[in-house]
Amino acid sequence: MTQEQDWFDHVYRQAAGDPSRVPWNRTGAHDRLLEWLAREQVDGTGKRALVVGCGMGRDAEALAAYGFKVVAFDRAPTAIAWCREAFANSPVQYVQADLFAPPAEWSQAFDFVLETFTLQALPAERRAEARARIADFVAPGGSLLVITFGRQPETVVEGPPWPLTRDEVEAFTEHGLRIVRFEDFRTPHPEWERLRWFRVHLRRPPTETGQTP
User: How many CA atoms lie less than 13 Å away from 135 in the CB half-sphere?
Assistant: First the structure.
């Protein structure tokens, strides 16, 4: 277990089954995900989805409700055990896996990939490899949705988390993906005057014999 992996797992173990003790806990799926799914009128029937860094599983469950066959992974084994217990009757496949050493069969295997807050939790020197790994999960004709805190390049942040710059998110295009829509917006927050978000939809072009987006 890596030092980072151990830290995340420690948080879940210390929570001892109490979601309120997990700093990134949410009572439901991410609002930015739910908004996007509704707006795009997504139908996941017959499609495979992968949730990167699934945490407590709520985003994965939301995608399953939209018809996707979902695989959700986290590097923290306690998080995966938590999800399996909390959603014992779920169709979601919860898997303990390392983003930096994923199963080979996941390469370009998913019609939809969700990345929410994983990159911003990593130090800068690890993000390039993480982007490459995440992009590789996307099948020809498939989509990646990235939801993250955003910042200007000149803004200095003491993390984690480390909000991403626009360039860092756009760097997914170095791995065969194309930006469909880049949303940069701010919302009210009790601790900060305005909280900046990026929500970015990217797509891998279909092959000649592959499915259309």
Answer: 22
Amino acid identity of residue 174, one-letter, is: E
What the chain holds in terms of domains, given with CATH numbers, is 3-14+32-203 (3.40.50.150)
Per-residue pLDDT in tens (0 to 9) along the chain, 213 residues: 455 557 666 666 665 566 666 656 666 799 999 999 999 999 999 999 999 999 889 999 999 999 999 999 999 888 899 899 999 999 999 999 999 999 999 999 999 999 999 999 898 999 999 999 999 999 999 999 999 999 888 888 877 888 899 999 999 999 999 999 999 988 766 555 457 899 999 999 997 554 544
Say how many C-beta atoms besides its own lie within 10 A of residue 70's C-beta.
29
> DSSP assignment of the chain, as one string?
--HHHHHHHHHHHHHTT-GGGSTT--SSS-HHHHHHHHHTT---TT-EEEEES-TTSHHHHHHHHTT-EEEEEES-HHHHHHHHHHTTT-S-EEEE--TTS--GGGTT-EEEEEEESSGGGS-HHHHHHHHHHHHHTEEEEEEEEEEEEB--TT----SSS-PBPHHHHHGGGGGT-EEEEEEEEEE--SSSSSEEEEEEEEEPPPPTTS---
